Amino acid sequence: AKYDKYLRGEVTLDSMEERGRKLFFTEYNPFFPQESGADCAHCHGGDNFENDQYMNNGTKAESEIVDIGRQKVTNNSVDKGKFKVPTLRNIALTAPYMADGSMRTLEQVINHYNNGLKVSSTLDPALEQTREKGLMLTDTDKAALVKFLHTLTDETLLNNKEYSNPFK
Predict the structure, then answer these.
(1) 97, 69 contact by CB (below 8 A)
(2) 62-86: pLDDT as tens digits
(3) Which of 35, 23, 32, 14 is nearest to 139 (CA)?
(4) Shortest CA distance to 81 belongs to which of 110, 48, 119, 45?
(5) At residue 23, does pLDDT exceed 80?
(6) Cβ(95)–Cβ(105) under 8 Å?
(7) DSSP string, 1-56
């Protein structure tokens, strides 16, 4: 992926990709909006851009949760509506998004985190703190995040015949 090449010093990110990268890795700060980031790395961190945890990301209000997620396995009510945090590697190729496929674009996903979180008893605490003010992202910030997410696409995967249609 371009991001891996960037880390190795082989390429540079354009200004929008770089802005998106900074927003992705910068923590949310409601007290200093000009310094606040999208805080994505808490959940989507490490080499694979995931955290190996189950979390509720606020796509459903308490009364709307039909698919109870992790609770189905653990039988523990604190797991209601929690799903495995997915990798963001090749995320631009894997629409629709969210556990229920309710979001068709990365822009919709970013808008959700920016100001669309719904209240439930198991909403992740890090997301709960952003609900009142939202992430405070501008339209340019949101576009930059999308550009950065596209740098996580492995272009060689797209053209590798080993991953082509097995039914041909």
Answers:
(1) no
(2) 999 999 999 999 999 999 999 999 9
(3) 23
(4) 119
(5) yes
(6) yes
(7) -HHHHHHTTS----HHHHHHHHHHHSPP-TT-GGG----GGGTS-TTTT--S-EEB
Can you read off the two tokens belonging to residue 111?
């808008």
Burial 125-147 (b: 16+ CB within 10 A, else e): eebeebeeeebbbeeebbbbbbb
What would the two tokens of residue 21 be?
A: 């990268």
**Which of helix, strand or coil describes residue 93?**
helix
Q: How far from 78 is each of 34, 53, 70, CA to CA, in Å?
A: 35, 14, 9
116-153 per-position pLDDT tens digit? 999 999 999 999 999 989 999 999 999 999 999 999 99
pTM for the whole thing?
0.93
3-state DSSP call for residue 89? coil
